[in-house]
Amino acid sequence: FGQDDWQAMTLETLEAHFRLNMFAPLLLAQALVRAAGPTNRPAIVNILDQRIANPHGDQLSYTLSKQSLAASVRSMAASFAGRARYNGVAPGLVISTDDYTADQEVRLADMMPLGKLPSPSAVADAVVYLAQAQDVTGQVIFVDGGAHLKSFDRDFMHL
Fold this sequence. Notes:
The protein is mainly α.
């Protein structure tokens, strides 16, 4: 993620995050659709982040790159039209790092509208749904326990 805010953000932090989280997915999608040919219609599902709905000031370069990727979903879906379906899944805190204590995870789960953090299998289920949903394109599904419905002042690791 990188731990930058507006003061620490640099061209290097922005470039690194945009290369990984925006440019790579777009160029991979382009290559996939070209390789699929005119008769195959691949399903592309980008992994976003629930913070695209209610951003905070932490991890700014990362957040900006994920917001850009989220904004690309509708444009790429329209651009690919009948050649590919293009969607996104926006997970919340799914697999915590060593930065989180067990007590903190319980507290964070209690803060979610659904009273729990999402599971990895719930995120996978959303990806599988979008991969199989032949009539769905240009959509973002949040799998975050409802986190996108709330505004958090800081990243979860700081709460």
